[in-house]
């Protein structure tokens, strides 16, 4: 149910305050220690951030996508490592259950995901299957009332903290493509499941990824999301559709933070006897960043509204993910340029954001995959018209 | 026990306040407004007392324009139980506010009223004291700690150069200082639930209070602009300037 404007405004205002008063001052510490403090995570739980997208009937806020992207946009003002703490519960970790789960699965997990008691992680990528997700090799062999999982998942966000994983595994070994894939809810303490050490990454310190290894890991057959084999890839694609708008909103939020930092620096920093913001070449960079960020925000807000209206926005979601994450890459690059030497120094937040945003063009579908999705949809529509 | 918490809608503390070009007041159109921070501390204290089981009901009150309801909603989201809005488009002065609050106290019979010690817009620091006087109740201003006893309250007050601990009989008026507590962020689920909590609407006429202003603002000025500093070459020059230009030593 959509919120009335006053309530939404108050919600956004609270998130904005939390981000600027509590999170921004801790950005450098979180990056240096590669850890989000536990008491801060508790504050995030109390604030209700884990339940943004989980229906109200299961204890979440049940935000529409239009509302969710506005909240996420506010969260973009700070390091994406903070969002990562609850990001998988809002997005890819929980949405499989929200969209396609059985009533029992929803009742068992969604209330605990909404409060943040349990962290959910999404395990699709493998050492040999990234963009070509349909070729994944993790197998799930039926054995009585269980499935037995074997395989390795790679770069799994929040794996070290997860209580449950949404795991994509091949239930039909005769079907090499996407149709042989099913989605499972796998609990962290299932025998045969192990999580590797934290990966060392270029950026987003404080957010953790790791391998998840399944060795004869037994999972009850009742844990197939939706209760039907072979639907896993469809579930994954639905999850990623909504996730693309979420990613777009994060990129837009970070872009606005970088623009704000850039403008303030341009006013302050003097060269040749005046603030560098008075030089037209610097102005051009500021103007380009502002224009692109505005276009991107408008795209995401339009696509989110159409998603809420029930339109199929698969193409638009890919357009948003592609444009916004490439856009924030350019904005971050210009921010480094405007800051000059200071932009390269770890003393300022710019170089950290520059590294952080690089990931946005890669995960949840690379820019190239988005291009392919967009173009294939275009060609299919044209052929069918 | 019942508590009444008046909350004022003021210009947000992050906003850089500007004087209107004609000098009649400060610019408030298209300016972000929020709850007076000292009132937020009052709401937090009330909600904590309620959570500790010492208070049954917390009523948030705001007086003024229609948008004051948003301020009441914030208090409800933080944990107040219900709201009362006294609608008025008149610029309400501290005495008018105190009289309206007195009328509400008589209707609601709270045993404790906690107010912010002052509002960050006009910095009057009068309403709590006036309300105590009008009601003939004890008052403990600038509280940094409140401990409820049996029919009494022990309050630690921040005074110049130290702290003062006093015991007052209930019902009483307390005003908050900055260090009383650190207000919570209203949780997002509670913000959504606050919409369902009731807000009564009244007018000054319903309460039989004349709110006609008694003061007239003649002029509002910006503080003088700070001038740029200068670098001095030596200690001798600094001492000379302090003596002869600034005349401070």
Structure description:
The complex is a heterodimer of chains A (385) and B (249). Chain A is built from 13 helices and 9 strands. In chain A, strands 2-3-7-6 form a 4-stranded antiparallel β-sheet, with no helix packed on it. A 3-stranded mixed β-sheet of chain A has the order 1-4-5. In chain A, 52% of the residues lie in helices and 14% in strands. In chain A, helix 10 (314-339) runs antiparallel to helix 12 (350-356). Chain B has helices spanning 37-51, 68-78, 94-108, 127-135, 188-194, 235-244; strands at 2-6, 9-11, 33-35, 57-64, 82-87, 112-116, 139-148, 152-159, 162-169, 172-176, 199-202. In chain B, the strands form 2 sheets. In chain B, strands 9-8-7-10-6-1-4-5-11 form a 9-stranded mixed β-sheet, sandwiched between helices. A two-stranded antiparallel ribbon of chain B has the order 2-3. The radius of gyration of chain B is 21 Å and the shape is globular. The mean pLDDT of chain B is 94. The chains are: A alpha+beta (385), B alpha/beta (249). The A-B interface holds A 3-4, 6-7, 10-11, 13-15, 17-18, 43, 46-49, 51-52, 56, 61 and B 34, 70, 73-74, 77, 184-192, 194-195.
Decide which structural class fits the backbone of chain B: alpha/beta
Strand content of chain A: 5-15%
- Gross morphology of chain B is globular
Oligomeric composition of the shown chains: heterodimer
Rg from alpha-carbon coordinates of chain B: 21 Å
Give the spatial strand order of the biggest sheet of chain B: 9-8-7-10-6-1-4-5-11
Termini separation of chain A (Å)? 35 Å
Overall, the morphology of chain A is: globular
Q: Which strands sit side by side, in order, in the main sheet of chain A?
A: 2-3-7-6
Could you report the average pLDDT of chain A, rounded to the nearest whole number?
94
How many DSSP E strands of chain B?
11
Give average pLDDT of chain B, whole number: 94
What is the distance, rounded to the nearest whole angstrom, between the alpha carbons of the first and last residues of chain B?
58 Å
Q: Please indicate the percent range of residues of chain B in DSSP E strands (runs of 2 or more).
A: 25-35%
Q: Which sequence of SSEs, written as H and E, runs from N to C of chain A?
A: HHHHHHHEEEEEEEHEEHHHHH
What structural class results from the helix and strand content of chain A? Answer: alpha+beta
């Amino acid at each position: 149910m959509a919120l009335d404007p006053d309530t939404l405004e108050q919600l956004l205002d609270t998130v904005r305050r939390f981000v600027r008063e509590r999170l921004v001052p801790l950005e450098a510490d979180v990056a240096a220690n590669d850890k989000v403090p536990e008491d801060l995570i508790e504050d995030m739980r109390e604030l209700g951030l884990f339940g943004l997208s989980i229906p109200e009937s299961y204890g979440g806020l049940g935000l529409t996508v239009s509302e969710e992207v506005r909240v996420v946009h506010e969260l973009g003002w700070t390091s994406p490592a903070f969002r990562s703490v609850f990001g998988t519960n809002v997005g890819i970790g929980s949405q499989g259950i929200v969209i396609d789960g059985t009533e029992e699965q929803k009742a068992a997990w969604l209330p605990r995901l909404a409060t943040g008691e349990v962290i959910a992680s999404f395990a699709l990528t493998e050492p040999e299957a990234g963009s070509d997700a349909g070729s994944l090799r993790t197998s799930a062999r039926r054995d009585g009332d269980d499935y037995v999982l074997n395989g390795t998942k790679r770069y799994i966000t929040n794996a070290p903290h997860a209580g449950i994983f949404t795991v994509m595994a091949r239930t039909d070994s005769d079907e090499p493509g996407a149709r042989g894939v099913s989605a499972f809810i796998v609990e962290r303490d299932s025998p045969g499941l192990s999580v590797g050490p934290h990966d060392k990454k270029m950026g987003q310190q404080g957010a953790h990824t790791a391998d998840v290894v399944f060795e004869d890991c037994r999972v009850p057959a009742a844990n197939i999301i939706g209760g039907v084999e072979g639907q896993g890839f469809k579930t994954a694609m639905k999850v990623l559709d909504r996730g693309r708008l979420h990613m777009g909103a994060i990129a837009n939020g970070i872009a606005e933070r970088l623009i704000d930092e850039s403008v303030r620096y341009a006013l302050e920093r003097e060269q040749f006897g005046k603030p560098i913001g008075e030089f037209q070449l610097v102005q051009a960079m500021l103007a380009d960043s502002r224009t692109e960020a505005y276009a991107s925000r408008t795209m995401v807000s339009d696509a989110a509204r159409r998603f809420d209206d029930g339109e199929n926005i698969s193409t638009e979601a890919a357009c948003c993910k592609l444009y916004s994450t490439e856009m924030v890459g350019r904005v971050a690059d210009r921010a480094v340029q405007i800051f000059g030497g200071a932009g390269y120094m770890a003393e300022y937040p710019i170089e950290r954001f520059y590294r952080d945003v690089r990931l946005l063009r890669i995960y949840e579908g690379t820019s190239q995959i988005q291009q392919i999705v967009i173009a294939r949809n275009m060609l299919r529509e044209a052929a069918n018209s | 026990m019942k508590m009444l918490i008046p909350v004022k809608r003021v210009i947000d503390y992050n906003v850089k306040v500007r004087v209107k070009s004609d000098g009649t007041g400060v610019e408030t159109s298209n300016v972000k407004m929020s709850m007076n921070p000292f009132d937020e501390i009052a709401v937090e204290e009330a909600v904590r007392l309620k959570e500790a089981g010492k208070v049954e009901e917390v009523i948030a009150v705001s007086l003024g324009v229609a948008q004051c309801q948003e301020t009441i909603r914030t208090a409800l989201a933080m944990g107040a139980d219900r709201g009362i809005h006294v609608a008025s488009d008149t610029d309400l002065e501290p005495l008018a506010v105190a009289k309206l609050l007195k009328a509400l106290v008589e209707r609601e019979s709270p045993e404790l009223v906690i107010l912010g010690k002052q509002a960050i817009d006009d910095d009057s620091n009068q309403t709590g004291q006036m309300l105590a006087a009008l009601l003939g109740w004890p008052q403990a201003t600038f509280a940094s700690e409140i401990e409820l006893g049996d029919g009494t309250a022990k309050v630690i007050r921040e005074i110049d150069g130290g702290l003062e601990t006093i015991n007052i009989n209930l019902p009483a008026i307390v005003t908050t200082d900055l260090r009383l507590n650190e207000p919570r962020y209203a949780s997002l689920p509670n913000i959504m639930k606050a919409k369902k909590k009731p807000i009564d609407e009244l007018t000054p006429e319903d309460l039989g209070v004349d709110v006609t202003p008694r003061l007239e603002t003649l002029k509002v000025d910006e503080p003088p602009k700070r001038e740029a500093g200068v670098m001095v070459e030596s200690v001798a020059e600094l001492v000379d300037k302090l003596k002869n230009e600034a005349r401070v030593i």
